[in-house]
From TrEMBL, chain A:
InterPro entries: GTP-eEF1A_C, P-loop_NTPase, T_Tr_GTP-bd_dom, TRAFAC_GTPase_members, Transl_B-barrel_sf, Transl_elong_EF1A/Init_IF2_C, Znf_RanBP2. This protein promotes the GTP-dependent binding of aminoacyl-tRNA to the A-site of ribosomes during protein biosynthesis. SUPFAM superfamilies: EF-Tu/eEF-1alpha/eIF2-gamma C-terminal domain (SSF50465), P-loop containing nucleoside triphosphate hydrolases (SSF52540), Translation proteins (SSF50447). It comes from the Eukaryota. This is Tr-type G domain-containing protein. Residues 250-475 form the Tr-type G domain. Residues 16-45 form the RanBP2-type domain. Residues 171-194 are annotated as: Disordered. Belongs to the TRAFAC class translation factor GTPase superfamily. Classic translation factor GTPase family. EF-Tu/EF-1A subfamily.
From TrEMBL, chain B:
Belongs to the eukaryotic release factor 1 family. Pelota subfamily. GO terms for biological process: nonfunctional rRNA decay; nuclear-transcribed mRNA catabolic process, no-go decay; nuclear-transcribed mRNA catabolic process, non-stop decay; ribosome disassembly; RNA surveillance. It comes from Aegilops tauschii subsp. strangulata (Goatgrass). This is Protein pelota homolog. SUPFAM superfamilies: Dom34/Pelota N-terminal domain-like (SSF159065), L30e-like (SSF55315), Translational machinery components (SSF53137). It is found in: Cytoplasm; Nucleus.
Amino acid sequence: VPKTDNQSDLEGPHRNAGPWLCSICSQQNDTSCMSCEVCGVLRDLSLYFNNTNEPEGGAKRRNKHSGVSVLARSLFTPSSPKSKAIVFSDGFRGNKNATGHMQASLGTLHKTFMTHKQRHNIVPFKFDIPSPDDMVSIGLKSSRHLRKADTSVPCVDIPGKMVMGDDDLVAEKDTSTDPSSSVKLDELGGNSSSVAANTRNETLILDNELQHLSLERKPKNSKAKIKKPVPVSQYKPEPWMLQGEDQEMPRQLNLAIVGHVDSGKSTLCGRLLHALGRISKKQMHKNEKEAKEKGKGSFAYAWAMDESADERARGITMNVGVAYFDTKNYQVVMLDSPGHKDFVPNMISGVTQADAAVLVVDASLGSFESGMGVNGVGQTKEHSQLIRSFGVENLIVAVNKMDSVEYSAERFNYVKSQLGIFLRSCGYKESAITWVPLSAMENENLVTAASDTRLSSWFHGTCLLEAIDSSAAPHRDVSKPLRLPICDVISSHVLGQVAVCGKVVCGAIRSDSKVLVMPSGELATVKIIERDSSRLSSARAGDNIAIGLQGIDPIHVMSGGVLCHPDYPVSVASSLELKILVLDITVPILPGLQFELHAHHAKVSASLVRIVSLLDQKTGKASARKPRMLTARQAAVVEVRLEREVCVEEFGTLKALGRAFLRSQGSTVAVGVVTRVVQRELELQ
Amino acid sequence: AQLLPEEEDDLWHAYNLIAVGDSLQAVTVRKVLRDSASGGRDAERVKLKLEIVVESVDYDKEGNVLRVRGKNITENDHVKIGQFHTLELELKRPFVLRKEYWDWLALDTIQQACDPTASADLAVILMQEGLAHLFLIGRSITATRSRVETSIPRKHGPAIAGYESALKKFFEHVLQALLKHIDFEVVQCVVIASPGFTKDQFRDYMHLEAARRDLRVIIENKSRIILAHAPSGYKHSLKEVLDTPGVMSLIKDTKAAQEVQALKEFFTMLTNDSARACYGPKHVEVAHERLAIQTLLMTDTLFRNTDIASRRKYVNLVESVKKYGGTVHIFSSMHVSGDQLAQLTGIAAILRFPLPDLEDIEM
């Protein structure tokens, strides 16, 4: 069968307006319902029951006709191509309840149907390459299961023989009406055993499509918003997702700029943007003037990132700022994080999307030391630990304000050795750290190599831009079902009333597709996808995008939620088992500790229910005894209860959604991964 | 003893006071069925005084009602002896409580409840961007009066205007909650606490709006609104708010403050010398046997045990700790600190000398 790619035909054929009568229980159903509200019979059943001209007879006779024979008849009776397709599917659906060994024969039937259909140029089904056999069997199982759940079509036990008989009938009919397809059928019949697996594959695919069809419509007539979760292992990426993977498109790199307060993160960002021509002269001039007026001349570049009045007045970043620029290899999304201790929550929720990070350190005397936390916990430390636990492996350390120490190589090496020890203890590999001395204020070593002789005399490494450009390409998981944690909910005139921002963690999204908004469980349609204010038709894992949604009330969309594939909802948890690593804390952790739990963009109040076991740092083995408390640098398995439900995944399933950060009393006390999700009960009707 | 609850706190004390097996007398209303002369049945609501033997007690935080269920023991025309009845205790309604044995804890509770000077009503608005809680803190209960939550977008290029307006809207909701729930005649002062600058922003907004809309309550009580730092806007951060020096001085002698202090001491001890602090009934018991307890921390939930024997046990424990010169803090589980202690098995102790072998005893 030739490969076709016309998946949007999943939308069902349009029908006549007005209520319709269920053919089984004569219930008056609403037009919008795809199947009977009382007995669940599909609406189109009536099409072929009418066809048979049968009076209200016994179920037996109906059975006989609802099977393949009906299908065959309807196939070849003249009617509109579209309705034919749907009748076919219905007949097929009924048949699926029959025993498994008839699959092969059905498969052959399919083939004939397909060839037939293609001649008519109606291609409502999409074909994929045959999948491995184990996939088939899983699929078959689930599809059969599904049938049982949502249909009560009165043809549950057609004996296999009869169907086979009917099949013969089809063959006969075929020959009489359509010689070309019968040839095909004969051919298939000849070596049916050998092609069985192959044809079965196609049945499965078709079946999958049907599943989509029925699942998508289910919400309309039932209150159950969240469907039975399908195991993710069953998920098959649709071809459009993989398209363009090989295209030589510049990939996106989400770059976090982190560091202690006043280390010059925003100024560095502003400088970079300015040097790369992303800020207009006019804008820059305006910023400079306004900054001078406020007596904060040195903040002119930072104001390119800090746009809100409060941030400007106070001279600190409070929320994560987003800016875009291009390098040779990447489209960089720069996330400028706040350094102040109080805004670490903002930093966590804004920067979890990062693929790579620039740690900005203030080289000037005293400032570096306070960042390292001589008195209390410094944010240089806290941020680099957090960034590491976001899954960022490659770190660029920008030693800023080198001008204030006369570009002294000695100072640079001191910073390098001090910080290097700490970073290695956090789990950064020596080779993954790039050290760049620079001065954002004096524009030294940012986009071009150092010009000041005091620096260029001893430093021969890369400048910051080159370092960013040469960072390793992040791994993208396109072939998993869609997951997009909502970072921000906005409304703008371009994107519409409800729009969300975030990074596609895995899978892909495109306009006009349906997405499930968790944890509310509402369906929405993707209207617009934007990246850096330019419209896209689709976006894949790793892309940082803004999406305009339609058909959903804004109250259902909260930051911290997750957009996901309608058939593969993310798990929602109110209780979690975490494997945590306790950071450098002074007050030990006891059961009953209340803290804020951050997971991707979600934050929630939580409490520690119990400490399950203590893990040995080296061997990772659990200790036998229940520990009384946890102290700094210990690893443990703990159970936490969340105040509200949060969308997370187990770390093994999806890393990005399986990380958690525990904060208490204004500092991060532990980082961890989700080992077990205690799922909330699904409201299945 | 005849008691008259005057404020919310008193009901809470009553809840702690009334135990299963006590007898309680109060005025109540009961629907009585009566056979009328014509053979039909009339339902009539009769106000009567009943005395019951308590079987269960329920505290309704929202409605400020205490529901006590039990068997009737007074003879009267309408209710038979042994019939079940539920008495509702409300504010300003007197009741009589009889106990077979008044332990010191019960007496202490009454004394506390009768002491008007200990009362300090404090309102705390705990907020962070997009989330605010409004608490009223009485002597022994912390009531969450309101919770405001809105989604505030982060700054995002042109959407910056959306941020400003969303923040305004959020502040407006908080202000409305403040006006609705805080009565400045009762509340001594209002603490606005948040991480970062949200508290300043809100205060500015509040004063601006007060001037614009002529909100007399706020203008007149300006001096009674103070700011404090909080690590987050969630309920458990209230502990840290109460611990800040500015707030601490206001509530110094209240129970809430003492509890926060005691718990803090416990944690400090745990940090500095973990062998000198313990928690869990088993460990505390062992420590007590060795007369090591200096300060005992307990929640009132333990005393509210339905099982009389275990209540007796805890009462005896407290009494003997006191006898040997230790101090005892009974935490109210309605406060944040008590809530935390309750999750930490409800009992903990600071010891006089280290007992490192406690580690080895299975909990």
